Amino acid sequence: MTPIISPAGPTPPLPEAAIVLDLLLLVLAPLAIAGVALINVGLGRSRSAAQALLGNMTIISTALIGFALVGATFATNLGGPGHILNIAGKPWNWLGEGPFFLIGIGNASAQSQLEILFEFLAVALAAIIPWGSGADRLRLSAGSAIAAVLSILVFPLLAHWVWTGGWLAQLGINFGAGAGFIDPAGAATVHLLGGLSALAVVWVAGSRRGKFPKEGFATAMPGHNAVYILFGCLIALVGWLGFNLAGASLWLNAPLAALPVTALNTMLTAAGALAATYTVTRVRFGKPDASLCANGWLAGLVASSASAAILSPVPALLVGVAAGIVTPLLVEVLELAVTVDDPSGAITVHASGALIGLIAAGLFAPLPGQFIAQLVGIATILGLFLPLLYLLFKILNRFVPFRVDPDGERIGMDLHELGGGAYPEFVIHRDDSYR
Q: How high does pLDDT run on average in the chain?
């Protein structure tokens, strides 16, 4: 495969054909959001299904509004080169310099408008990831408040550092580290950030009642609808193709000839991950586990967000296999050894899948120093954003309590927050594990 990345520097504008294609691809990208939302619903309890899906919609709306009013100002460079600090003789571009409320966006170039559209879709996807981890106990108001914090403060900062000329993107220019930190479709800015947000939410909100009894093992609380989960995976694949191809074109300036292989790599990474998770769960449990296989498939897609545009097909398949092996094992470790209650598996799927993809992008990139740039970016996100997210959510929890009261958790989020269930014609049995 012909390398599509080059040392960081000014990139030529996209040709008109690429502009049209990118717009069409970004029209498909929301299917990734829809797929993840459906997976979030299916992995939760039946008595919280309507609240879960409505929560995804309110979170997406909050994230889009927050990013439009404030966040895009700090993520983009429409108003200038950005805010730069000179340290040790090197420029460190740490914050964007765009207009508030997207004023004047219509006068920007078509490529700049597409980049902003990509960021809007990315922040919407990032914001719903922690919602799945807080399933069956997180209030609607809390989900929206978390989305506001992510879209206004946290995501714009990281998006600028990675995509729009920030200091991580300039590691190549300033320190000769390959092309700088590369993340063409949001493995870091969407999925690693979303996975760390999910971890912070679980730490702040705590586990579901009865999940970890004082005596005995963790209580199994399987998702209520495997069809939602698996169909969500298929929908997500289409959206991921949109994200990965548009990201390769917009952020790596990939030629049109490189996009078919990027699409092929996306599918191979997901396929390899599913095959690996299927095998692992069959060996461990005697039969394949549907929800874990879905998590493996999604972890493969997450890994492809960083690597599909860079790898050749065989390495892409191996990256998927690695993600598919890690996913079920790490889900088990987090639940049984660390007592982390993550109904959607978002911490494992999005955080570990992103790390595998980002590392693979550095290992297989054709430029010297690229692996170092990837490690610097990963260390920065883990060392800075995880503590920042936990601190922000801890403070936010004091003003907008994350967790529903015990009675609401007992009767279900649908009845407690919406006044009606998602399945009124069926009897929702009581939870015998509730204590």
A: 92
